[in-house]
Write a structure and sequence with these properties.
single chain; alpha/beta; two-stranded parallel ribbon; globular
Length: about 220
């Protein structure tokens, strides 16, 4: 029996997002997942960094006690630390943020605090990498949870892209044509690792955001 696209869609579960957002935040320490609220179908790739458990001292604190500790630390550190909170973070996180926004907005926001020695990025790995690229050499970027990954960023790893690139070059060659156009122009989305952004840069490509995708693709088609 042949199924139509509509039949396949209808057969899918109506709920695809993990419902663990209702669970206590410390329940997820050491678990290899994308975290509560992620798609149930997104399986985190191996090898994976597992988040270490926070000291029991913090796990036993009430929200009020945690708030007191955070407020005191922020007061002590002052302008030496800037805290970036992504839109997707919990309310109890973003309320402390100096800036709230998407990944690229936050990386640019950090540039407005050049005197801050430390940038704390409450987000995922590729976001902190982007902030690290844009920040000065004197600034340290801290990702509170080193295991915080993004399923979109994990869709393309450097090894797979290198293999695909070599296959494309074997078919189309590596030299520009008579019009000076490249045989292949790599384009990666902002939600990608620093390694893939560097790959595109090395090979005459570019990085795009959701807001400039049209202009970036026009740029790419003019060159390849």
């Amino acid at each position: 029996m042949t199924l139509s696209i509509n039949d396949l869609i209808a057969a899918q579960p109506t709920e695809v997002c993990d419902a663990d957002l209702t669970q206590p935040i410390f329940e997820f320490d050491g678990i290899a997942t994308y975290g509560p609220g992620a798609s149930k179908d997104d399986v985190i790739p191996d090898p994976v960094i597992r988040r270490g458990q926070l000291p029991v001292e913090y796990q036993k604190m009430t929200p009020e006690e945690l708030d007191e500790r955070i407020v005191a630390a922020r007061k002590q550190l002052g302008d030496d630390v800037v805290l970036l909170g992504h839109y997707y973070q919990r309310d109890e996180i973003v309320k402390y943020a100096d800036f709230l926004g998407d990944s690229y907005q936050l990386a640019n926001a950090a540039l407005t605090r050049p005197k801050a020695s430390t940038i704390v990025f409450c987000g995922v790995h590729f976001m902190a990498e982007t902030a690290d690229i844009l920040s000065s050499d004197d600034q340290a970027v801290i990702l509170p949870n080193l295991a915080a990954g993004c399923s979109m960023a994990d869709m393309a790893d450097e090894e797979s892209v290198d293999a695909a690139w070599e296959e494309l070059l074997a078919i189309y060659g590596s030299e520009p044509n008579e019009d000076g156009k490249q045989p292949v122009v790599p384009v990666t989305y902002m939600n990608s690792s620093a390694a893939l952004k560097a790959f595109c840069g090395r090979n005459g490509g570019i990085v795009c955001t959701s807001s400039n995708a049209s202009a970036v693709l026009e740029w790419a088609f003019e060159r390849g």
